[in-house]
Amino acid sequence: MQTPLKRQTFLEFLPVSIFGGVMGMCGLCFSWRFAHKFWDVGYLTGEIIGGLAVCFFLVLTIVYLFKLLKYPALVKKEFENGISVSFFATFIVSLLLIPGILLPYFPFLATVIWSAASALMFGFAWYVLRKWLDSPQAAESAVPAWLMPVVGTLDVPVVGNKLPMEGAHEICLLFFGIGVMFTLILLPIIMARLFFQKPLTPAIQPTLMILTGPFSLAFTGYEGLSGNQDLLASVFFYFNFFLFVLFLSKITLLPKACPFQVSWWSVSFPLAAFTIAAFNYADHKPDVIHLSLAGILLFLTTAVITYLLFQTVARIITGNFVPQISPPQQALS
Length: 333
Fold this sequence. Notes:
Layout: E1 6-7, H1 10-13, H2 20-39, H3 43-70, H4 72-80, H5 89-102, H6 107-134, H7 148-160, H8 168-196, H9 213-226, H10 231-247, H11 262-265, H12 268-284, H13 288-318, E2 325-326
Antiparallel strand pairs: 1-2
Helix pairs in contact: 2-3, 2-5, 2-12, 2-13, 3-4, 3-5, 5-6, 5-7, 6-7, 7-8, 7-9, 8-9, 9-10, 9-12, 10-12, 12-13
């Protein structure tokens, strides 16, 4: 007798990559704070977005912990997969960015959270890279998501450079060095896969925007650590600008992506990271072109994240959160 198919529950399906939404909202909060600094607008907008990001992080953490307790085999399967393991970085990066929201109000708490998240990021990056080195990886598995642990290390200086903590500068230098060098190692591998292997499916192609994240963060981190906007900083910024233009059209594929695949939220933080970089660049070169670029990116990032948030909430309310069906015995496979 054939076993009837069973629709996955909300909890069974919930992917760890959903924390990418928190990352995007944290970046959007920082972007609106820059808008307030430059144009004296959006102060409440930035703080409200930051508050929502913190609330969403707490809710998602509780729900995912409940999933871990009820379906540990599903979480283990997600963590052991060579590709999906990278998305656990979204949780850690969220922990690295939330201190930036809290810093103006609770500096000590922000420092404690950032310190713990930095240690967690170091351990996670070490684990993932060792996992890849210890066993051969298939060429087709070299997807943009591979950069997530690397992007995570480059997120450490984003908030760390602003913390009133002795030794924070050296910690930021450590992670900046790891992130930049592994970006230079992994990006050619991923680009080679894109050149010589079958193209990514339309539902996954928006994740190509992840490739713009490392150089945005490298620019922001380098400028914060060196205190200068020199030739190297400009190289990071303008190379990232070219990547952004190259992959910008992939945003139009979002409506074609399956509900709640990572391709829904993967564009949010790279967009926010480039918006922050554009504001930082315009701070040193406040001409019409660079200020206009920052403003356009702020509008685009806000529109995309608003769209993603609306789609996310609407699908949860209407019960379309989970597209998959599976046999009952596969629920824990």
